[in-house]
Amino acid sequence: MLTGPKSFFKARQRVPDVKDRMLSHGSSDVGDKGTLGLRLLPGEHILQKAVLVRKKLPCREGGGWLAGTLFCTPFRVAFVPQDDLKRDEDTDPILLEDHDVALACVEKVVAVGPSRMKVMTPTSTLKFVPEELLLYCRDFQVHGFLFDRLTPEAQAMEITCAIAKVYQPLQPGALLTFLNAAFGSVEMRQRLSNRPRDATMCWFDIASDWETELERTGATGWRVSSINHRFEMAASLPRLNVVPQKVLDTQLKNTFAHFNEGRIPRWCWHHPSGSDLLRMASFKNNIYCERDNVRNLEALVFGSGQQCVVVELAEEMPTLADLQQGHARLRALCLADESAAVTVPDEKWLSSLESTRWLDHVRCCLRKATEAVCLLNDGLQTLILQEAEDRDMNCVVSSLVQVMCDPYCRTLAGFQGLVQKEWVVAGHRFLSRANYHRDREKEEAPVFLLFLDCVWQLWAQFPSRFQLTPEYLLAVHDSAHLPLFSSFLSNCELERRRRSKFLQLLPQCYTPVNGLGKGLPLTAWHALPDPPLPPVWDWALQYSSARRSRFTQPMTRPDPPPPLVNGSLNTVKTTEEAPASVFLFSRGTFTSPSNLLPWREGGGTGLSKRSLRRDPPSESPLAPDWLLKAWTLAENPGSGTLIPQLLAPCVGLWKDCYFRGVLQVQAFRHPEATSSHPVDQLAREVQQLMEELALASAVGARGLGQVGLEPSSTRMPTAALPSMPPYTTWTSL
Amino acid sequence: MLSTLGGGGGKPAKPSFVSYVTPEEINQTEKECSRKEKHPDLLPGEVIFCSAGPVLKSIKDDLFQRVVYGTLLCTNFRVSFISDEAPSDEEAAQLFKNKLYGENDIPLTCVDHIYGGFDDKKKLIISGFVKNKYPSKIIVCCKDLRLFHFSLAYAKEEDAKKIFQGIVYHCLEPKSLKCVFAFSYGEKTLLNKENQTKPKTVMFDTSEDWAQEIKRTKGNCKLISNNADFSISAKLPQFFIVPTHVTQEDLTKFDGKGIPIWCWSHHSGCALFKTASLPLMQEDASSQLYKSYMEGMLNAVAQTHLYSVKTEELSDSLPTVQDIQQSYSKFKQFFLLDNTNDFWMTDVKWFSSLEGSCWLDIIRQCLAKAVEVVECLEKENTNVLIMEEEGSDLCCVISSLVQLMFDPYYRTLGGFQSLIQKEWVMGGHRFLDRCNHLHLKDKEQSQAPVFLLFLESVWQLQQQYPPAFQFSETYLTVLSDSIDVSVFSTFLFNSPHHMASIAKAMLEPGQRSPVNWPTVWDWSVQFDSRAQDFFINPLYMERSRQDKAPRKMPRPKHQRHQSLPSSAFKFSPSAKKGFLKDETDSLKKMLRVKRLSRWMNSPDSAQASTREFFVAWQRRPLDYHGLLLPCLEGPTLRLWSQRYLRWIPEAQIFGGGSITILKKLADLLAEVQDLRGNLDRQACRADFNHQGVVARAKSSIQLSSAFPFTMPRSRSFKPAIPIGPLHSLITDSLADQEDEENLGIV
């Protein structure tokens, strides 16, 4: 590939000192003098560049601006600061440096002239010399670049046009170009396929991961079935599914037909109290049921529990259209797009926020998850989340439940495993929901972003109970907008495998039983030259180690061990002699409608029609909190469950994410305030001291005495926190 | 204990008090606990007016309505409910306890509204004399946003009538100042001289205090001390500071109006002044007089520094006192909901109703105005004179906010208290009228939570820059509560003159000693020293020692200005700062022109320049001991959740909230100390004992977001509400039976 000789030639005509600097930069970069310190990916080439550009820094990065050079390549808009001393040449180039913007992430290019601004499209021409270039990104960021008087006018114009030309307004096929630009080269492919995958987390594509999970949660009576090994049973399901031990694979085979898309009830998680969390799609009612099969179905539904509660997620949850609309409105509100000239006066801010309804959707999900947690906590029952397709809200609720209950899911590895388990492998339609091809408007919905927002809400209410930080959530949020990762570029595991090299390993590709075809834009994918896409969890590919180190925070104390199963619950179990009963939990009430399980004629166990909650249905908004409160009070406060408070005053807006773009409102946190939060300081000090202590004890054990150990010299001072009388008294409470 | 597990959820439509106890049971219990008269621990000078029992208090703090029997008392200080139950251990061990009034006490001045419950209807009570029927239930809304439900249904009718009348009379009827509890309390207590406020608070009641203050800020104004007997004006404090060029005869002219009172000096030499404005805009005989007087005063102010002055009539751009009152009374209603149903109703439209009250917007306007003043002082080094009709309401808000933003001293606990003392107490804020503790009908118009508005603004600043403030959120909350406890002299009077004349009148009958009113700053009156620890913000960054050395303030050079002839006003072509002597022919016009040029006429440009100033400030590294400016955008102003949500059980985050950060901090600190100790031991002894590393027993207490005001209580009873279907089927609970009754099955 050519490394832009044209632009290099241009660079020579510039003012002498710039040239000198350029040359001095170039000399360190052996072989590629034109890059001015830009580290190109293999196969990447510079389309256009502009020197002496200033990048506006958002306030959280210190405010002001940074001088440097702006590049445009087929893959990204890169900005290299002039005096970037910290780069180390040893490490592999990461895909996007701190100041870079992936082209696929750019939503709108705006050129700001002296008196006007213009939204640039690939076809538009520029009739004025821009003073400023604004890139609006899909992930709520806005990047501003200022062209100086010293910037050659031609460069300013050309780079603006170049970016406008190559940035991909979403359309069919654009994604492919982008992926090729990123990973197309042979070298890049090799590098990607050689990257080892993170062994510390569970990927849930091999049986041992599931077995580990079963063991970790203490679930019994379940096994990992590989009946869907070749995706013959259900195309959207993972290869491995966890089903009750007593159902054999041969028996299992006949049950798939009874569920939408063949998504049978599958085990997700085991609550310490003894309940199991399952998820399934809705039933197909018109299938005739043999008697043998009924038994298998029952076994599948009830799992190891005596009773089963089906939580229907369709009714109270926002629809996809609601979500999409809410998110779009939130975007419009938060970005306060300068070119669109929609600004909300400060005094109208709250009602505008309310009218986006985004926070209502967030609350709704958290509320549903809280209900599920309450039910699970009751013990010895099977809780099944049911959604028509089992691919959207089921993912949200089941993973939220686990974040709330399971301290492991609040660690970095645990959270990644959770997303892998409940979203990636489970077949959330990442590709359709992101709608990169712009061909299915109706399916577009930010379901995963909604989940991240919910997790952030939990974080905001219980900041000390998470190992992962908002910084990490932000990284996941941004990556979800970046069409580069295998995790987010497929609708299900089958698609993912088709694209990857594993495709050849599959002996034969059967056409699956129930219509795989409609979900897959097969032609597009077959045409792909098939670069192996990295998973999103390979953070080293995207972020510098400095930023990665901020993904976790030290936990002061491990969460208390989950409470043991309460012995008194066993008595309850023995008294129940009746055949397994099934209830529907919906709108805060239990019912037992006769047609809940379609194969059971005539309904439930004689308890039908009896509402166990005393609320008439019309007062349903009360119900969840009623349940919740009762549970909170009964609960031993030591258990590690997070029950979020969902009243409007307690739900916040994820400002660090949504307000990054707005230049006026960026000043939420002053740059210095973030870096030196005393909690972080102290936590670091604890770690440091622990290391010292370990070192000291090692030295002591070897009987070497105090060899040069001067702890006091290496200690970080406990600056700024000299006295804390009140809070030391609390610890002794 | 008699507790009824009524269904808050089951019968949410009826507000409360569904008793499931039969009358027979009541009679029994009545006999049991009869004549077990309990008296509260009365404060010195406290007298019981009337009492009644048994009275039921319903507790809403979980969703099961619990009912407690007890006695209701009305004293000259409070309405008190004494429970028949023995106080539980937790309550006894409650850490954050007010010594003056407990959980079940309502100081009379703290009562906001009283509602009477007639069967199912709720009626606002205005006077104690009811025509037909006395209510069976009293609902008391407090100014600190607590809510009490008392049922009088089981008390003897006479008693009920008496206590109802008593409470209403003492809480709502107009009364004289002498009846306020502080007077009887002050007579009976001896002022504990040793108990002077721990963080030293400057009271500004002596000329030394003022002299010290002007020395501290390096101001060049003069101290006036011949108002010691209030001969100049009853509205001004005994000592005050004016520009050097104000003559003695100027002072006595208009009863203190129009005199620029010095507030604070910027390190550049310019200063902030406030004044009660003269009615300039009227066209009558005296107006010419006023104008020339005002002109002289402006001259004097201008000569303090660089011959420039800017005036700001606060009433032009800020909401009126009535607006503030109206907005706040709308706002507080969101937090005084007496049943869960209402809460959920408001929840749906929470944000827009919050916005509808405009309370946050008023806070924003005040902060924005303060930023404008800061800009003048900091960027343009102009003297600023803020004025207002009385010069003691919004002037106090703005001037204190400006000082708080500038001066790190005022962000310490002692400094903040001194600031309030200086600007509010000595500045003559009419606390008595603004709170209307006496319920005088003619003062109803002047009731307004101006001081609370100030505290709210401080809270906004504090939550944006926590490390800059030595005092905590809890301190502000407690301070806002203390306004309505009628014990402290700080909030009891309209002005220093008012206080002095009352004290004098009290002394005349030949009493032993002057009355001892404690000031609110003597926190030991209310809290013991452990509870006072909560006033300190653990995130506060104290200035490190090398910083403490007096820094040389870089005095900006104004060469150009100084070269101007000193006798003339600065002639500035920009007309922004300019104050021209030639234009003195019409002061009115001049004032208007000036104001318009900067503050009024071009609001856009003014806003833009303030914006620019803010951005420029933001670019500089943040110094917690330097100037602090608040962000004012819509999303940054938040609800003071500790103050407003602390009594609402529905809104408490159990085991969460910002308090957990502080707790984590404490844990970490303890861990650091432990580890350090271990390390030191290591360094001393070569032989390492592995037993030495003992995992610290971590406290398992769960704090809720309302800490320290309400603690999550662990209830001894389990809820009888079916959580899972199985439980309810097996256990024949009360709730279940009722369920069947509802359904008519039985």
From TrEMBL, chain A:
<dbReference type="InterPro" id="IPR010569">
    <property type="entry name" value="Myotubularin-like_Pase_dom"/>
</dbReference>
<dbReference type="GO" id="GO:0016020">
    <property type="term" value="C:membrane"/>
</dbReference>
<dbReference type="Pfam" id="PF06602">
    <property type="entry name" value="Myotub-related"/>
</dbReference>
<dbReference type="GO" id="GO:0005737">
    <property type="term" value="C:cytoplasm"/>
</dbReference>
<protein>
    <submittedName>
        <fullName>Myotubularin related protein 11</fullName>
    </submittedName>
</protein>
<dbReference type="InterPro" id="IPR029021">
    <property type="entry name" value="Prot-tyrosine_phosphatase-like"/>
</dbReference>
<dbReference type="GO" id="GO:0046856">
    <property type="term" value="P:phosphatidylinositol dephosphorylation"/>
</dbReference>
<comment type="similarity">
    <text>Belongs to the protein-tyrosine phosphatase family. Non-receptor class myotubularin subfamily.</text>
</comment>
<feature type="region of interest" description="Disordered">
    <location>
        <begin position="596"/>
        <end position="620"/>
    </location>
</feature>
<dbReference type="InterPro" id="IPR030564">
    <property type="entry name" value="Myotubularin"/>
</dbReference>
<feature type="domain" description="Myotubularin phosphatase">
    <location>
        <begin position="204"/>
        <end position="658"/>
    </location>
</feature>
<dbReference type="Pfam" id="PF12578">
    <property type="entry name" value="3-PAP"/>
</dbReference>
<dbReference type="InterPro" id="IPR022587">
    <property type="entry name" value="MTMR12-like_C"/>
</dbReference>
From TrEMBL, chain B:
<dbReference type="Pfam" id="PF12578">
    <property type="entry name" value="3-PAP"/>
</dbReference>
<dbReference type="InterPro" id="IPR029021">
    <property type="entry name" value="Prot-tyrosine_phosphatase-like"/>
</dbReference>
<comment type="similarity">
    <text>Belongs to the protein-tyrosine phosphatase family. Non-receptor class myotubularin subfamily.</text>
</comment>
<dbReference type="GO" id="GO:0007626">
    <property type="term" value="P:locomotory behavior"/>
</dbReference>
<dbReference type="InterPro" id="IPR010569">
    <property type="entry name" value="Myotubularin-like_Pase_dom"/>
</dbReference>
<feature type="compositionally biased region" description="Basic residues">
    <location>
        <begin position="551"/>
        <end position="561"/>
    </location>
</feature>
<dbReference type="InterPro" id="IPR022587">
    <property type="entry name" value="MTMR12-like_C"/>
</dbReference>
<dbReference type="GO" id="GO:0016020">
    <property type="term" value="C:membrane"/>
</dbReference>
<feature type="domain" description="Myotubularin phosphatase">
    <location>
        <begin position="204"/>
        <end position="644"/>
    </location>
</feature>
<dbReference type="GO" id="GO:0030017">
    <property type="term" value="C:sarcomere"/>
</dbReference>
<feature type="region of interest" description="Disordered">
    <location>
        <begin position="546"/>
        <end position="566"/>
    </location>
</feature>
<dbReference type="InterPro" id="IPR011993">
    <property type="entry name" value="PH-like_dom_sf"/>
</dbReference>
<keyword id="KW-0963">Cytoplasm</keyword>
<dbReference type="InterPro" id="IPR030564">
    <property type="entry name" value="Myotubularin"/>
</dbReference>
<protein>
    <recommendedName>
        <fullName>Myotubularin-related protein 12</fullName>
    </recommendedName>
</protein>
<dbReference type="GO" id="GO:0048741">
    <property type="term" value="P:skeletal muscle fiber development"/>
</dbReference>
<dbReference type="GO" id="GO:0046856">
    <property type="term" value="P:phosphatidylinositol dephosphorylation"/>
</dbReference>
<keyword id="KW-0703">Sarcoplasmic reticulum</keyword>
<dbReference type="GO" id="GO:0016529">
    <property type="term" value="C:sarcoplasmic reticulum"/>
</dbReference>
<dbReference type="Pfam" id="PF06602">
    <property type="entry name" value="Myotub-related"/>
</dbReference>
